[in-house]
Each structure stands twice: as structure tokens, then as C-alpha cells.
């Protein structure tokens, strides 16, 4: 899928987070609850940038790292990849 | 216990645990080796009478060369493995798993959780005040035991105990998926309309108190449940010739719940409805 830069990244990320929360089978804790907490944090910062988003981005990093390290399968392990790369490479929320 | 399990002698394999060489019998899990070495790795979904489901992920450790962390409760030790139990990486995942659970489930009756939350400096409140929780009302639909799924961590132990690992009744299962997954009987009916035979073997293995004797549930609600005033006496069930071991938990001269020793080589903590719940005649003083 390709998007031009008129598409607001935060909304795109929220949609992806919703997908992962929806697709989680619920077997392991990092993914079952982590994908919910990720979506909640992305909701909170959908209209925020800079210092206003910093706290939730730190939280997202912590939850994302645990999902990647401790989930059973590839779904939970990659549930935070898109959010991470949008923050680090595309400067979402700056 | 009257039977000494003999078992087949197992070869020892060598690996490294936190930098120290250790030897463990072939087939041991990393957790077995940690416990033998006196290391305290937290566990929730692991059960001493059940096959590991590795669902909670609170026991994760770091294995050299592995892309992700591995669950100590189910990963078998292998020769030459290098395992680290206390790295920043492992501790981080344990902390977050504890926070995720404590922010979504009522862990007030889960043994040791308060201690672990402190040890890992977990702050479940940091997700904010309005986050999604399970918020299930206790299901009180029979006189013997209560299902309070607001306390359920979905460890699968009750399902495995009710199903092919012990009871073979298959009364309960996981229904739904993701955060909406719950333990339920067929069509989410009351327990009295299900296949349940009230053996209580699910209550025996539940690590959170989500499943509890009705007597315990009522006493907790009334504020009279007090484990420091309880004694535990292991005896033999008088109902049939199997002679299962019963452990009677007694408070103020009343039996308040019945468990069964997990190390019994025949019954492994399992009972039937009579041994588990049929104790009223013992204290019928009328
Ligand atoms: S990581 Fe995989 S196994 Fe774990 S809850 Fe997500 S989808 Fe299920
Ligand atoms: S009491 Fe026995 S039969 Fe009923 S749900 Fe529990 S394990 Fe299954
Ligand atoms: S009811 Fe208890 S044993 Fe069953 S999944 Fe929930 S916490 Fe585990
Ligand atoms: S105790 Fe190992 S995954 Fe739950």
C-alpha cells in the first residue's frame, strides 16, 4: 500500500494498532493486553505532537519492546513495528 | 505418600545458568534448573501437575542466540545453552507483563503478585485511569464454587485440568479472542446447565482465585476469611476405595475448603465431587 504525505500518520497508525488488537488471538499476555494498551496510547496522542506526546511515546516503546521480546508468535512480536518506524524514521508526532 | 516414584535414570546435560555451569537431568526445563539452583523466577500459568501452556510470559529469560526471550517454564534445557535469568531485557518484559495484567485484571487474590510488582518496580497505573479492564461480575450460579472472571489471567490451567490432561469432562473452554477471550462453558450457560461434574479440579489449579469455593467466596465477601487462622490437615477420603488424599482447610472448627496434595503419585491433586465438596456431614452438629 502506498500513501502520499497528505494522509495523517497518527490516524494510519491507529488503524494498524486496531488491526493488531483485533487479530490478537489472546493466548499470551504481552499481545492480548499490550495491543490494547498500544491502541489506547495512540488514541490519546492522535492530535498531539512534541512534548505533549512524549510520555505516551515512551510508554509505547516500553510496551512495544515487551511485545516484541515476550509474545508467543509473530503477530504480537511485530505489533509495534509500524508504530516504531513511523516515530523513528518518519518523525510522526514531531 | 506411600509410593516412591522410581523413574528411569536420566542423563545429565550441562549448560550455563547466569554464568555458572549447571547440570540438569535430560528433559528438564530451564525453570526446573533455575529452581534446583535456588533462583526465583516468577511464574503464573505454569502448573506442577499440568503441561506448560506458556501463555503468561512472566517467566521469560534470555538465551544466548535466541531472537526473542524464551519462557523458562516450557523451554527444555539443552547442552551448551547459555541462559541468563536476570538481565535488564528479561526484567523489562516481566515488569511490563505484570503491569499489563495488573492494569486489566483484579490480582488481589493472586499469591506473590504484590511482591513481584514491587520487585520489578511495576507501575500498572501508568497506563492511565480509564484503560480497558475485564470488569466481569462473579458468576454465582451453584452452591459449590464461584467463577469470578474479573480475576482471570487466562492461564488455561482450568481448561487443561477439565479437559484431556486430567478430568476429560471438557466442560469449559476459552471463548472469544484477543482481549475479549474468556473462559466459558458451552453457550456461556450457567454451570448447572453444563457438562460440569463439580470435581473442582479446575479450582485446585487456578492460580488467581478466579475460581474459588463458595465458602471461601462468601467468607471473603463477609471479611471473615483469614488464612492465618486456618489449619491444613491431610487425610484420606472416606467415600470410596480409591482413597484419595484430602487436605482439609479448617477455620474456627469449620471446613472452609478442600484441596489435594499435588505430589500424590496416583491422583496428582485431582478429586471427585464427593471428596472435594461432600464434607458437610462431618460438621453437621444439629
Ligand atoms: S502473539 Fe500470537 S499467540 Fe500471542 S496473543 Fe498475539 S496472536 Fe496470540
Ligand atoms: S469442576 Fe471439574 S468438570 Fe466442572 S469445570 Fe471444573 S474441572 Fe471441569
Ligand atoms: S479461571 Fe483461573 S485457572 Fe482458569 S484461566 Fe482463569 S486464572 Fe487460569
Ligand atoms: S509461567 Fe511460563 S509462560 Fe507463564
UniProtKB/TrEMBL annotation, chain B:
Signal peptide as annotated in the record: none
Q: Which PROSITE patterns match?
A: 2FE2S_FER_2, 4FE4S_FER_1, 4FE4S_FER_2, 4FE4S_MOW_BIS_MGD, MOLYBDOPTERIN_PROK_1
Q: Which UniProt keywords apply?
A: 4Fe-4S, Iron, Iron-sulfur, Metal-binding, Repeat
Q: Kindly give the Gene3D superfamilies that the UniProt entry links to this protein.
A: 3.10.20.740, 3.30.70.20, ADC-like domains (2.20.25.90)
Keyword Iron in the entry? The reply is yes
Q: Where is the 4Fe-4S ferredoxin-type domain?
A: 188-216
Name of the protein in question: (2Fe-2S)-binding protein
Sequence ranges assigned to domain 4Fe-4S Mo/W bis-MGD-type in this UniProt record: 230-286
Q: Which GO terms describe its molecular function?
A: 4 iron, 4 sulfur cluster binding; metal ion binding; oxidoreductase activity
Pfam families per the UniProt record, alphabetical: Fer2_4, Fer4_7, Molybdop_Fe4S4
Ribonucleoprotein as a keyword of this entry, yes or no, is no
Q: Which residues form the 2Fe-2S ferredoxin-type domain?
A: 11-89
Amino acid at each position: 500500500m502506498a500513501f502520499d504525505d497528505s494522509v495523517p500518520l497518527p490516524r494510519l497508525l491507529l488503524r494498524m494498532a486496531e488491526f493488531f488488537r483485533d487479530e490478537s488471538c489472546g493466548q499470551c499476555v504481552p499481545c492480548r493486553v499490550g495491543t490494547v494498551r498500544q491502541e489506547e496510547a495512540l488514541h490519546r496522542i492522535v492530535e498531539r505532537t512534541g512534548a505533549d506526546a512524549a510520555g505516551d511515546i515512551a510508554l509505547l516503546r516500553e510496551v512495544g519492546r515487551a511485545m516484541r521480546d515476550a509474545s508467543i508468535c509473530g503477530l504480537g512480536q511485530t505489533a509495534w513495528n509500524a508504530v516504531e518506524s513511523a516515530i523513528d524514521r518518519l518523525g510522526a508526532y514531531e | 505418600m506411600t509410593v516412591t516414584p522410581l523413574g528411569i535414570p536420566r542423563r545429565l546435560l550441562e549448560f550455563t545458568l547466569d554464568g555458572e555451569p549447571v547440570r540438569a537431568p535430560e528433559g528438564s526445563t530451564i525453570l526446573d534448573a533455575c529452581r534446583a539452583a535456588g533462583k526465583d523466577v516468577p511464574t503464573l500459568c505454569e502448573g506442577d501437575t499440568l503441561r506448560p501452556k506458556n501463555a503468561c510470559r512472566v517467566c521469560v529469560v534470555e538465551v544466548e542466540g535466541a531472537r526473542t526471550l524464551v519462557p523458562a517454564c516450557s523451554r527444555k534445557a539443552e547442552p551448551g545453552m547459555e541462559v541468563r535469568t536476570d538481565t535488564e531485557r528479561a526484567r523489562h518484559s516481566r515488569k511490563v507483563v505484570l503491569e499489563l495484567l495488573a492494569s486489566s485484571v483484579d490480582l488481589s487474590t493472586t499469591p506473590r503478585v504484590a511482591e513481584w510488582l514491587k520487585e520489578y518496580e511495576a507501575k500498572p497505573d501508568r497506563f492511565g485511569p480509564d484503560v480497558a479492564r475485564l470488569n466481569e461480575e462473579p458468576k454465582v450460579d451453584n452452591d459449590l464454587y464461584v467463577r469470578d472472571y474479573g480475576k482471570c489471567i487466562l492461564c488455561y490451567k482450568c481448561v487443561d485440568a477439565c479437559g484431556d490432561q486430567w478430568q476429560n469432562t471438557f466442560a469449559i473452554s476459552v471463548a472469544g479472542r484477543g482481549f475479549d477471550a474468556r473462559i466459558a462453558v458451552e453457550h456461556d450457560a450457567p454451570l448447572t446447565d453444563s457438562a460440569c461434574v463439580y470435581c473442582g479440579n479446575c479450582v485446585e489449579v487456578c492460580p488467581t482465585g478466579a475460581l474459588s469455593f463458595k465458602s471461601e467466596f462468601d467468607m471473603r465477601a463477609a471479611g471473615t476469611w483469614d488464612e492465618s487462622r486456618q489449619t491444613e490437615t491431610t487425610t484420606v477420603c472416606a467415600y470410596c476405595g480409591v482413597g484419595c488424599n484430602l487436605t482439609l482447610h479448617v477455620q474456627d472448627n469449620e471446613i472452609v475448603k478442600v484441596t489435594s496434595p499435588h505430589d500424590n503419585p496416583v491422583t496428582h491433586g485431582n478429586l471427585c465431587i464427593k471428596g472435594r465438596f461432600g464434607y458437610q456431614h462431618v460438621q453437621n452438629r444439629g
